[in-house]
Amino acid sequence: MTEIKETSTNFANKQALADECPEAYASNIIGGQWTLVICSWLLEGKLRFSELKKNLPNITERMLTLQLRKLEENKIISRTVYAEVPPRVEYELTAIGYELKPIIKALENWGEKHKALLEET
Amino acid sequence: MTEIKETSTNFANKQALADECPEAYASNIIGGQWTLVICSWLLEGKLRFSELKKNLPNITERMLTLQLRKLEENKIISRTVYAEVPPRVEYELTAIGYELKPIIKALENWGEKHKALLEET
DNA sequence: TAATGTACTATATAAAATGTAAGTATGACT
DNA sequence: AGTCATACTTACATTTTATATAGTACATTA
């Protein structure tokens, strides 16, 4: 995250892939390590930064911030700041973000199934 | 790819997440840069290494090999070697791999929609 | 004899993602 | 004056992923 080099081959490849393959495009957006889990929690309703943090036990504040920023940039979630002290910020899925719901559910089912399959020796 | 350090925090986090959240588990498996595109091509039927390479213009042979290996390890694809010269190797989706089809299609639709949304304005 | 095609492997390096640790602003409260 | 809570930010280190380049085996073909 942090910095990406727009002259790298990697960047160019990602662009080209995303242009041609909407599934690769989607994967770039929701493929982060915590992305789907965050969305999955937000499917239940809006949450504050600290609540998200509690639900994702091992995430660092930095990572949470970065992922939320990226999701916000991609309009998957919206961010509302309340001018209070101490500050309060709420995150909520947007319409397009909420449309990930069936995909997330499908991935969950597939994941369970796949895990079972690998475990049966 | 290549080497992963089983003592790193990152590794531990991934494990923990995958244990609790099947969607994160699934994302780990299909979240590689080329993974979904490869699967998407294989949805149409078995393909040889060189055919895959042709369809993924900028991929290096090394990357293709690594991704295929990972997919094979995860039993998403199967690999058949024909004892010929020059060698011939065919890749094909397994049953569980084929079950990704609706997910891939859903991701494609979502991706298109999302792209359109970001472009308007 | 030399070149060809296929599906790789080996090594090096670059880039991206993630993690660690510390610090910031604010107003209320002690 | 000092502590607290929240939601960050910053600088830096490490780990993971991706690319670049070259090389391998071997029967067939030229």
Automatic annotation (TrEMBL), chains A, B:
Residues 21-119 form the HTH hxlR-type domain. Signal peptide: none annotated. InterPro entries: HTH_HxlR, WH-like_DNA-bd_sf, WH_DNA-bd_sf. Keywords: DNA-binding, Transcription, Transcription regulation. It comes from the Bacteria. It holds the Pfam family HxlR. GO terms for molecular function: DNA binding. This is Helix-turn-helix domain-containing protein. The lineage of its organism: Bacteria, Pseudomonadati, Bacteroidota, Sphingobacteriia, Sphingobacteriales.
